[in-house]
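PROTOCOL LOG
Step 1. Enter all chains and additional molecules of the complex.
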Amino acid sequence: MESVLALGGFVLLRDSVEWEGRSLLKALIKKSALCGEQVHILGCEVSEDEFREGFDSSINSRLIYHDLFRDPLNWSQTGEALPGGPLGALQAMCRRTHPGPVTIALDSLSWLLLHIPCTALCQALGALSRQHAHPGGGSPAEPVRVLGLFHEELHGPGPLGALSSLAQTEVTLSGTMGQASAHILSRRPRQRPAHQTQWFSILPDFSLDLQGGPPLESQPHADPHTAPVDPTAHVTFNLHLSKKEREAKDSLTLPFQFSSEKQQALLRAGPSQATSHIFYEPDAYDDLDQEDPDDDLDV
Amino acid sequence: MAAVATCGTGAGSTGSIAAAASKNNVTSFQRKGPRASGTDSGCSRLVSIAGTRPSVRNGQLLVSTGLPALDQLLGGGLAVGTVLLIEEDKYNIYSSLVFKYFLAEGIINGHTLLVASAKEDPADILQELPAPLLDDNCKKDFDEDVCNDKTPDSNIKMKIAWRYQLLPKMESGPVSSSRFGHYYDASKRMPQELIEASKWHGFFFPEKLSSTLNIESCSLTHGYRKLLQFIQNVIYEEGFDGSSPQKKQKNILRIGIQSLGSPLWGDDICCTENCDNSHSLTKFLYVLRGLLRTSLSACIITMPTHLIQNKAVIARVTNLSDTVVGLESFIGSERETNPLYKDYHGLIHIRQIPRLNNLIYDVSDVKDLAFKLKRKLFTIERLHLPPDLSDTVSRSSKQDLAESSKLLGPGCGMMAGGKKHLDF
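Step 2. Run joint prediction.
Step 3. Record the structure below.
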């Protein structure tokens, strides 16, 4: 799980109805906050109080919450709502230049996808992840981490594919028997993507408890109904040779068998043959007596 | 095509004089000026440009794609004035490598580059180009690569078919006599001085957008329109279309566009199936092809076709491109553990080869091709499939093998189809 936070860039957290991801998101936020980073949260799906619930006051003081839940369409006109709507809020985050590593948590990309077009969201995410490469003051690369929560059941394969192709790390939540697991796919640039499955559980104070493996009472793998049939049984020809048969086969002289010198010469002088050689190897029935040409006629 | 046209209009007089001279061989009239006859024998009318050669089949001017193995499959190289479309593999590892080989080949040959991307800064892309293998070192390294590769196999020396020991699997090996294709070391970076000595133009789409991301500015044709204008400006200003005939040395413009059609360009064909501006990408390709045909340029485009939701768009895009090559890597798929594919990193599908000034295709008869990336060599080899066994013997393990060895095209029913072979 450390690799999720170690790599910068965009982390896509895919959850579903059975395995919810907000607690993992909060756990990762807590971890970043404890490392001393700045954490910005764009909250869309739950209220601020509900989101901050469970964090102690030291962490809560580090979180900078941008609330889109209370008044997303700015109906109250009090000026508290974020200007520009959801897209404006994202752009504001792009423009922010603070020194130091930053984590941005988007409480739900699904909510954002319902309100802004997918291409605009992808471009904004690209701009956010790229921010560390072009900081305002020219300081060396400060990692910007964008954690996005994505409810994959709400969307078709299109947005999911588009967002996965942008993500540096993709965490898919699943599990068995009440134990959650995270399948982490990390794509380092120009390297093979690495898969990892991590079993974990989240404690009430949103700290991560990593477990070694699946729970002990995992069900046994069901046997297939049909036993695999061996195709090499009941064949009319012999597929396996015994040792004696193999020796007999090896010692058989093949027709047109050349001596090894001739073979090597032919192999070596393949492409360019400056001079032509004549190789004569007498056959078993060849008669070397030049004087009588009819000697082999058996008359 | 394009070269002959520009030769005809721009340097026509020189060409005709030289042609007359070669025909008669007796004239004493020597025209002062750039000699039209280059190093290409028998093609004295074509202007010789560094890094190009005429095709042996129809005289079409070709450039190397940077991968000699791919050049051979495409009939000698990529024709000048055409588009090479690479369908990206799932994690965009090998397609970006092919993209970089193309650009590196341009730098080595001294061509001008135009790199367009919506994801990475073109300057960063150029920093990551692979280093070229120089002739004196590469033969030694290639031999050691081949030896390392061959040692498990060559223990079984063939007894009956021993003459085939010499036969290469596919044309592999640095052709040291020609300077057309070069080999690159994927583990090293191109030296900085070569990059700085080269001329390149970069188009980084997020910079060209206005600083505020309005929804209007994400309209589909906006990014493509800007890119087309940029390409057109470069072609016109640098004279690749013959517009400034007093240019002393003709050169090729190599255009590389990365991940066209991805949402970062503002195109939503990867996001939805019924998108509003589904013709934006096809219009772009059509206009781009028109630009390329009238200039001395070659273009490589990588496209994440596995993300495109509407399959009809893929078919249209294929028709609008000239050469289409699909890469399918085994990473993350069930084929990775398949023993059939253990030597290779992925499959390569040649989806389309153009017929340029020709009635027949130049396609090789080998359809099952796989590639592997060794450190210094990107080889494409013929994949030997196991024999197609009949349906009567039921076997679970062998059936998976035979089934997964079938090449899956984008339009075919995938594993959802029944497992039985149909016998008519």
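Step 4. Note key features.
Strands of chain A lie at 9-15, 38-43, 63-67, 102-106, 144-151, 169-176, 179-186, 194-202, 208-211.
The first helix of chain A runs from residue 2 to 6.
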